[in-house]
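ok posting inputs for the 2-acetamido-2-deoxy-beta-D-glucopyranose job
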Amino acid sequence: MFFLVRYFHIDIIVIALLLSAVVYSSAYDVGVDYHATEADFIDSVFITQYHTPNVRSTVLTQLQGITDRGATFVSLRIWLVAQPNGSADPNWQATFPLSDQEKTNLHQYANDVASIQSAIDGHRLRLDVCLLWLGAADYTIGNLTVDFGYFHLNASEFTLRVEKTVDSVLQALANVKRPDGVLLVQTVYLEGEVMIGAKANQDWFLATHYPRFIEVVTNANFTPSVYFLVDGLEKHVLQADYIDAQFPALNGHRSMYWVYRSLNFMKNEKLPLPSRIDFSCYIDRQTATYESLISHIIDDASASLSVLGAPDLYGVAETYYFVDDTQRNEYGQAFAIEALLNPRLDRLSFWTTPDAGGQGVNVAYPFAIEDFLLPSSY
Ligand SMILES: *[C@@H]1O[C@H](CO)[C@@H](O)[C@H](O)[C@H]1NC(C)=O
Ligand SMILES: *[C@@H]1O[C@H](CO)[C@@H](O)[C@H](O)[C@H]1NC(C)=O
Ligand SMILES: *[C@@H]1O[C@H](CO)[C@@H](O)[C@H](O)[C@H]1NC(C)=O
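and the output
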């Protein structure tokens, strides 16, 4: 409510924009980066232990609450980490490639997400899935001439396992439909926070695996993608005199430093650019408003990425979930206002655990999803 009041005395045109945008407000989706039942990430990541009845029933309860409070999608991360030799790994570590139990769990989870319906307004969820590669699957360790990952897999073995992982994820998710006939899964991300130039061997990883990934994900009728990382530090976002030594399109648009470099790499490699540009967006403010920073960031994206032929459509794939109610509401509403004023911002999902509220500040269900929703009910 309070941000509307602030707009009311600024300009009648802004009010008109707000009101007209409310009509198609359902275009802005809010979701949760939901992968754990509690704040403790190590133990409470659920996909590896979904066959445990009380884990599954807790997740079902939480999904219902998430939906009732207005989320329209959940976004699952799967951390591929462990060796497939049956050692007792912490719950957050899925196996590289997925074990049979994990495949079964993923399929069951997808069916369960598909079954959820809001008790308030009857809407249902969509599901996104993002793969993340660490430990045995950490391609930033090693190199092409030696081997990759914590356990020294050679390149052909590594690629074989990536392909097996992708195939089994798709097998688990394929054709899972909601009772209203809608395919449950929307986007499958091969990697999160892609930063070409900052993460060793990521160029190799994408060039080698993304083409096949696009093909098999598209064949499953899902949208293949990766997401990028925005530099949300206030002094970088607002650095009007920023000059990029390599890419003049970035002059004055420093927030896009890594997004631009990553998309530029994809373009040079003739990898199709995503149909919507998604990124993590953690805004660290000093004195500016969150509204001015997010609108600056989206303007930076439009101005610089268009040079590469990227679509002018954006999704926030991760962002803060502050534990302070006032700060979180102000933060969430800044994104919602940006989406109202400019439908380039298509959706947002916020991070949970670990570190959603800042380093060491983990959050868990229940979530105040309304803080991020459009003010269409006002
Ligand atoms: C599993 O494999 C890893 C890497 O080869 C090894 O370090 C670990 O000891 C193995 N664990 C078991 C239980 O065999
Ligand atoms: C690859 O890694 C090995 C072992 O760390 C190292 O000796 C070699 O110089 C690296 N090669 C390249 C091309 O970086
Ligand atoms: C790569 O590793 C796999 C599994 O350890 C092994 O079977 C294969 O022979 C290795 N390939 C090369 C080219 O070293």
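notes: DSSP finds eleven helices and ten strands in the chain. Confidence is low (pLDDT under 50) at residues 1-25.
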